[in-house]
Design goal:
Elements: E1 8-9, E2 13-22, E3 25-32, E4 37-44, H1 52-70, E5 80-86, E6 89-94, H2 102-109, H3 114-133, E7 146-149, E8 152-155, H4 184-187, H5 194-210, H6 220-229, H7 242-248, H8 259-280, E9 284-293, E10 304-313, H9 325-328, E11 344-348, E12 354-359, E13 365-370, E14 376-379, E15 383-388, E16 394-398, E17 401-402, E18 412-417
Antiparallel strand pairs: 1-2, 2-3, 3-4, 4-6, 5-6, 7-8, 9-10, 11-14, 11-16, 12-13, 12-15, 15-18, 16-17
Helix pairs in contact: 3-5, 3-8, 5-7, 7-8
Length: 418
């Protein structure tokens, strides 16, 4: 066992095992003995030759990394719990998310399908909206800083984040950020803005779709040269997301998609394939018609009953309206009356129905807590970000359609659009 693994930070955070290492330190799986919960602990190492002034700068940057996400309450941004100074260096205690990052997924599986990339992009836009409204710019959005926990997409590592009033903590002449994902204006020495985060989002989505970032040339200088002088190669796998990439990767930030226009284009891209499938794929149900034919057969004078069985084509939109197999037989679906008219209804069928609902892209809480068994909550905002902590204990209806339930303790993250 290493010296670090024997540490208990601030008499409560016990290091359990190493999760991974990076250029700036190590991330540990830990346990908060006071609150009895698992945590992630980021150990930040200071270079041995760091002078006193640079050491002060390093501490300030660490505190900034912790404060930036600590101000932002949304499931799409990692939650920070504490900062501890131990053994002369800082440690950041945060939410433990045991999930691969987007870079690891691309390396393992290759380019991702457009529908999945659209889902990732939509949640990252929500995370950026919350950060930018608080005056915080991430400045290092890239696949390795995006965690994929089932349906939940989480933006992490605000170590380079900038907010108004924060001291400028980088030295002149030092490149800050990741060259393959940095916006052209930032690479040229201009100050980072919300628009530069949107460029990095575009480069991240491009990498997810194509398996590589748009300007990566293998080394820093060649990458920066391509960024300044070349256009990105047209994506081959983007499908309906091509206009989103084109708009986000405009080199002139004034021509780049705004946040609102990026959301609009992405949602159009997400809805087009679904609409096309609904129109192109007919649905059929088995219809059984029993007709009693009162007739006299001349040859024998016997009345006969005819059983007619056939396939009948459903009218479009019947399944889209949320009809279940039960309702197709004439029995009403077990659905709360409010579910037909509201985007989201949650009913607690167990004692562990804990939910976290916010208005998507904002800091406005709708509800956070554990519902009593039998309690029903109706949410009428047009766009909602939802975390269900135990899908077996909650019945969830989205726009009148009951969502599948999971095993006890299974968590699910949802984005609801009216």
């Amino acid at each position: 066992m290493s010296q670090s693994e024997r540490l208990v930070l601030a008499t409560r955070y016990r290091l359990v095992s190493e999760i991974g290492q990076g250029a700036n330190g190590t991330v540990w799986r830990g346990h908060d003995d006071l609150l009895d919960r698992a945590v992630a602990v980021k150990e930040l190492r200071l270079p041995a030759d760091l002078g006193e002034d640079d050491r002060v700068v390093f501490y300030r940057r660490t505190l900034r990394e912790a404060r930036a996400p600590a101000q932002l309450r949304t499931p799409s941004i990692v939650e920070v719990y504490d900062v501890v100074i131990e053994q002369g260096r800082p440690w950041i205690v945060m939410e433990l998310i045991e999930a691969p990052n987007l870079e690891q997924l691309i390396e393992r599986d290759g380019p991702l399908p457009p529908e999945r990339v659209a889902h990732i992009g939509r949640q990252l836009l929500d995370a950026l909206a919350v950060a930018h409204r608080s005056g915080i710019i991430h400045r290092d959005l890239k696949p390795s800083n995006v965690l994929l926990d089932g349906d939940r997409v989480v933006l992490t590592d605000f170590g380079l984040a900038f907010s108004p009033g924060a001291a400028h903590l980088t030295k002149s002449g030092h490149f800050v950020g990741s060259p393959a994902y940095v916006a052209p204006e930032v690479a040229a020495g201009e100050r980072a803005t919300p628009q530069s985060d949107l460029w990095s989002l575009g480069a991240t989505l491009y990498a997810a779709l194509e398996g590589r970032p748009p300007f990566d040339r293998g080394n820093v200088m060649a990458t920066l040269s391509a960024l300044a002088n070349e256009e990105p190669a047209p994506p081959q796998n983007a499908g309906p997301l091509a206009p989103v990439l084109t708009g986000l990767l405009q080199k002139n930030p004034l021509r780049r998609l705004s946040h609102a226009r990026a959301v609009d284009r992405l949602e159009r891209a997400m809805s087009a394939p679904r609409a096309a499938r609904r129109q192109a794929t007919p649905r059929y149900r088995l219809a059984v018609v029993v007709g009693l034919i009162a007739a006299t057969v001349a040859s024998c004078g016997v009345g006969t009953g005819a059983l007619i069985v056939g396939m009948m084509k459903e009218s479009p939109g019947r399944a889209a309206a949320g009809e279940s197999p039960a309702s197709a037989t004439g029995r009403p679906a077990a659905m709360p009356p409010a579910a037909a008219a509201n985007p989201l209804v949650v009913r607690a069928i167990g004692d562990t129905c804990k939910i976290f609902v916010t208005e998507a892209g904002s800091l406005n809480f709708e509800f956070r807590g554990t519902m009593a068994r039998g309690e029903e909550r109706v949410f009428d905002k047009p766009r909602l970000s939802v975390v269900i902590y135990d899908t077996a204990a909650c019945e969830v209806w989205i726009k009148g359609v009951k969502q599948p339930q999971g095993q006890p303790g299974t968590r699910r993250d949802l984005l609801v659009n009216r």
